Amino acid sequence: MVKICCIGAGYVGGPTMAVIALKCPSIEVVVVDISVPRITAWNSDHLPIYEPGLDEVVKECRGKNLFFSTEVEKHVSEADIVFVSVNTPTKTQGLGAGKAADLTYWESAARMIAEVSKSDKIVVEKSTVPVKTAEAIEKILTHNSKGINFQILSNPEFLAEGTAIVDLFNPDRVLIGGRETPGGEKAVKALKDVYANWVPEERIICTNLWSAELSKLAANAFLAQRISSVNAMSALCEATGADVSEVAHAVGKDTRIGPKFLNASVGFGGSCFQKDILNLVYICECNGLPEVANYWKQVIKVNDYQKTRFVNRVVASMFNTVSGKKVAILGFAFKKDTGDTRETPAIDVCKGLLGDKAMLSIYDPQVTEDQIRRDLAMNKFDWDHPSHLQPVSPTAIKSLSVVWDAYDATRDAHAVCILTEWDEFRSLDYQRIYDNMQKPAFLFDGRNVVDAKKLREIGFIVYSIGKPLDQWLKDMPAIA
């Protein structure tokens, strides 16, 4: 019986291992983490992450061939294949601060693996790591191996939050990178055999280590670039009277381009895009490629510009001040169908409005008040570091309330900002919302989810990203 152990019970490790357990009943899968509350949650009826379909998969396998444990060393020493899915946050100080990945947790995991191993092991990189991480890990393992043979593989994840289980059941591709040596090729085959239980062989791509590591950064950079491209166009559409949805539809019909990731919005978020691009920028700079680094930096710059532009549009439209005005924020997660708030555009938009002394009332169906307050109290990149390094009790922001109902959030508000594309926001009773708001009533749609024409008929002044502007907005400066 093959034994798999995954170090790290987060957004990647938990769902990935649950699906492997479901699809490979003959393999024993143990997910380990030093966080007792996290493992307790995985063993309970309230999993630590929200992901459609995850509950059912975990309940099907847990206690049979899927286990969650804090006994890290025991299960690592017993495993044949060790997936390492620990965090690789962006460094906040020292060499490469603000760009480079912090490999502290990876290194300590590698040292622990070397220390407790009594048999040969395949060690699989599952976290997003900089190119050449495998080489560093290999050195740590071989210099501490005590005669044990370790093979390092890169097997990056390409999950999208909100559809992770569907993605795992039916992946576009599974990428496995290994050393081009007999031992490396044998290890690649062993991991390929695991995935072959449910993934068609033609979708399992085998490459060298460095190609696999770089492919993950490249994929995220290309996706983020598409979003920044359409967002840059959205600003031009507003200036010229074009409609970004029509432009994106026309562009997406070109089979060389395709329609995906062409929805204009208030900006991209999530744990990977910005982090991976900054990492890519740093690697380019370290390899003497400043022009390449600057090219990718621009993707981040346009994303930051889009968030600033949105805040400026809100403030400028409302007589150049939101001081003391109630602004309802609908949606705080970085996208629908997840409770994840890492790098969500809502943080920058809320901070921008709070900076202009707005009174915010926030509603999101999946994000807790504690999480929202914590996010708004943190410095950039703090979210990616262990909780003991984050603000313990976030400073209370008096001009902020978190409510559990969209109608409560919008009551007596001067404006509504939609920042996450939750399906429920499409079907709210906007007549009821309008009747209970201050007038003029503004709606700023950062995700293009509402029917602007219908809302204007109700009486709203509507701003939709990249759409022809209301007469009211045309008379206001684009920048406050």
Automatic annotation (TrEMBL):
<dbReference type="InterPro" id="IPR008927">
    <property type="entry name" value="6-PGluconate_DH-like_C_sf"/>
</dbReference>
<dbReference type="GO" id="GO:0006065">
    <property type="term" value="P:UDP-glucuronate biosynthetic process"/>
</dbReference>
<dbReference type="Pfam" id="PF03720">
    <property type="entry name" value="UDPG_MGDP_dh_C"/>
</dbReference>
<dbReference type="Pfam" id="PF03721">
    <property type="entry name" value="UDPG_MGDP_dh_N"/>
</dbReference>
<feature type="binding site">
    <location>
        <begin position="8"/>
        <end position="13"/>
    </location>
    <ligand>
        <name>NAD(+)</name>
    </ligand>
</feature>
<dbReference type="InterPro" id="IPR036220">
    <property type="entry name" value="UDP-Glc/GDP-Man_DH_C_sf"/>
</dbReference>
<keyword id="KW-0520">NAD</keyword>
<comment type="pathway">
    <text>Nucleotide-sugar biosynthesis; UDP-alpha-D-glucuronate biosynthesis; UDP-alpha-D-glucuronate from UDP-alpha-D-glucose: step 1/1.</text>
</comment>
<feature type="binding site">
    <location>
        <begin position="86"/>
        <end position="90"/>
    </location>
    <ligand>
        <name>NAD(+)</name>
    </ligand>
</feature>
<keyword id="KW-0560">Oxidoreductase</keyword>
<feature type="active site" description="Nucleophile">
    <location>
        <position position="272"/>
    </location>
</feature>
<feature type="binding site">
    <location>
        <position position="33"/>
    </location>
    <ligand>
        <name>NAD(+)</name>
    </ligand>
</feature>
<feature type="binding site">
    <location>
        <begin position="272"/>
        <end position="275"/>
    </location>
    <ligand>
        <name>NAD(+)</name>
    </ligand>
</feature>
<feature type="binding site">
    <location>
        <position position="342"/>
    </location>
    <ligand>
        <name>NAD(+)</name>
    </ligand>
</feature>
<dbReference type="InterPro" id="IPR014027">
    <property type="entry name" value="UDP-Glc/GDP-Man_DH_C"/>
</dbReference>
<feature type="binding site">
    <location>
        <position position="161"/>
    </location>
    <ligand>
        <name>NAD(+)</name>
    </ligand>
</feature>
<dbReference type="InterPro" id="IPR028356">
    <property type="entry name" value="UDPglc_DH_euk"/>
</dbReference>
<dbReference type="InterPro" id="IPR001732">
    <property type="entry name" value="UDP-Glc/GDP-Man_DH_N"/>
</dbReference>
<dbReference type="InterPro" id="IPR036291">
    <property type="entry name" value="NAD(P)-bd_dom_sf"/>
</dbReference>
<dbReference type="InterPro" id="IPR014026">
    <property type="entry name" value="UDP-Glc/GDP-Man_DH_dimer"/>
</dbReference>
<dbReference type="GO" id="GO:0051287">
    <property type="term" value="F:NAD binding"/>
</dbReference>
<dbReference type="GO" id="GO:0006024">
    <property type="term" value="P:glycosaminoglycan biosynthetic process"/>
</dbReference>
<dbReference type="Pfam" id="PF00984">
    <property type="entry name" value="UDPG_MGDP_dh"/>
</dbReference>
<dbReference type="GO" id="GO:0003979">
    <property type="term" value="F:UDP-glucose 6-dehydrogenase activity"/>
</dbReference>
<protein>
    <recommendedName>
        <fullName>UDP-glucose 6-dehydrogenase</fullName>
        <ecNumber>1.1.1.22</ecNumber>
    </recommendedName>
</protein>
<feature type="binding site">
    <location>
        <begin position="127"/>
        <end position="128"/>
    </location>
    <ligand>
        <name>NAD(+)</name>
    </ligand>
</feature>
<feature type="domain" description="UDP-glucose/GDP-mannose dehydrogenase C-terminal">
    <location>
        <begin position="328"/>
        <end position="452"/>
    </location>
</feature>
<dbReference type="InterPro" id="IPR017476">
    <property type="entry name" value="UDP-Glc/GDP-Man"/>
</dbReference>
<feature type="binding site">
    <location>
        <position position="38"/>
    </location>
    <ligand>
        <name>NAD(+)</name>
    </ligand>
</feature>
<comment type="similarity">
    <text>Belongs to the UDP-glucose/GDP-mannose dehydrogenase family.</text>
</comment>
<dbReference type="GO" id="GO:0005634">
    <property type="term" value="C:nucleus"/>
</dbReference>
